[in-house]
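User: Predict the structure for this protein chain, please.
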Amino acid sequence: MGTTQLETVPEPKYWHLKTVLREALDADFAVGEILPNERDLAARFGVARATLRQALEQLELEGRLQRRRGVGTTVAPPRVGVDVSTTRGEWPGAAQDAWRPVDCDLTGVPAEVATLLETEVGEEVHTVRRIRISHGQSVAAERLYVPASSVPELSAIDAPSGPARARGVLRELQHLGLDGQDRAVELGSAGADDARELDRLPGAPVLVVTTRYVAGGRTAAVSVATYRADTCRLTFGASGDLEIGENPQERQAS
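Assistant: Here is the predicted structure, written as structure tokens:
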């Protein structure tokens, strides 16, 4: 990497540095190559480490860099296109579903999901954990929240715990008539659980896709899927109606 003069640039230093670094990544580094440490990079470009860190964070957000545990900051491969469009008449767990069930527990519903389910915060629901694999790596982790009233025939004897119980919940959902679903996407940061499942550092940028499934005129299940923002480029296809908004109470089923 070369040096550059940043003092006369009217835009924020870190923003211009990001452009310089991006050009250097294209010219001088290969995919997977480890960048020099922050101290060396800051000295080379004549900037404070805080400025450098801001530029690196922006490049990570854009999918150009990856922070890896025990490795450091590496040049990221091109983002993988991940199709998140769904057929309006299908529940999670349908035959062509790309997700793999991991576990299922009875857990208290978080506040943001309770609003969508129109239930009390902390009320116990079936929480199905699933992961999505693409090109040999985990690219997304999902929590599917299903009230007991949506799967009344679920047998604890047939599916006591783990992936078997997750599959049991998904199987019971197929028996409901699906009226429709809606989705919303927002940028977030990885919490401890998602970071561990996606092999990311806590606080890493992620894309959060929230899907509300409606049956019998009520919300029957809610999916909160967390995608790696550094490796995923979400595609929605012809059926992927995407809502832009901040208030989940305003979402209407398609």
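Residues 239-254 have pLDDT under 50 and may be disordered.
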